[in-house]
Amino acid sequence: MTPLTWLYVPGDRPHVIAKALVAGADVVVIDLEDAVAPDRKEYARAVAADLLVQPQPVPVHVRVNALDTPWAAADLAALRSLRGLSGLRLPKVTGPSEVRHVAAAVPLPLYALLESALAVEHAYAIAGAHPSLRGISLGEADLRADLGVRADAGLDWPRSRVVVAARAAGLPPPPQTVHPDIRDLDGLAASCAHGRALGFLGRAAIHPRQLPVIERAYLPTPAELDHAETVVEAAATAPGAQALPDGRFIDAAVVAMARRTLSLARRG
């Protein structure tokens, strides 16, 4: 199933993790990094390790601490062979060597978070660093601070850069970063629509109430499904470039996009 929602939850709050596992997210991300204070890191790591000894009802990832911190090595050692862990999210990656370092130590799918100007410049090299890397995405709060960007439009170039890098490396489209205001569901919907237009697929969330908004924004609309079905049917009866009755031209690229739309609608 193509994941559309990635729900982050603080690693030092076991009761919140339990609720997140049944909240309806496609992936739950236990966070050992930004959501956990330094004096709670060991406790959060132990909570995650104890929980993930057993398989979970949904895929669970853990965002470990950045590799240049005092906690990263212990995170990797504790998590490297747990049956309930589906992947590691690596924060603040700046180059491909960091991905290779973790891949050599941990036999798990990896996901790199690009959170600085240097990381964006290295986006394609990071995306192709190792077969264990299954996805890249932006960490926009840190990137915004690094660039000194105030207006949201200032991040559109890095966003497009990451979308292109993922595609060029054969990775899935990246999910959007979190929308920090959990009460602003209209703003979240508008931001998702913009992200979808840029080529993102799905989004990280920090509260369960954000999940249905993200899913609605990224699932095909009825009109998009109707058009995709028309395109695929037309291609099946008359292969090759052609014009539909409504005047719209279709070719192999349009057909491929239509099939992707139908596949996404059937993801469940």
Q: What's the structural blueprint in terms of helices and strands?
A:
Layout (H helix, E strand, L loop, with lengths): L4 E6 L3 H7 L6 E5 L9 H11 L8 E4 L8 H8 L7 E4 L5 H10 L4 E5 L2 H5 L1 H5 L5 E6 L1 H8 L8 H13 L16 H14 L4 E3 L5 H8 L3 H16 L4 E2 L5 E2 L1 H14 L3
Parallel strand pairs: 1-2, 1-7, 2-3, 3-4, 4-5, 5-6
Antiparallel strand pairs: 8-9
Helix pairs in contact: 2-3, 9-10, 11-12
How would you explain this protein's 3D organization?
This protein is of the alpha/beta class and 268 residues long. It folds into two domains: 5-218, TIM Barrel (Alpha-Beta Barrel), CATH 3.20.20.60; 222-265, no CATH class. It contains twelve helices and nine strands. It has helices at 14-20, 41-51, 72-79, 96-105, 117-121, 123-127, 140-147, 156-168, 185-198, 211-218, 222-237, 252-265; strands at residues 5-10, 27-31, 60-63, 87-90, 110-114, 133-138, 203-205, 242-243, 249-250. The strands form two sheets. A seven-stranded parallel beta sheet has the order 6-5-4-3-2-1-7. The protein has a two-stranded antiparallel sheet with strand order 8-9. The termini are close together. The model has no long low-confidence stretch (mean pLDDT 93).
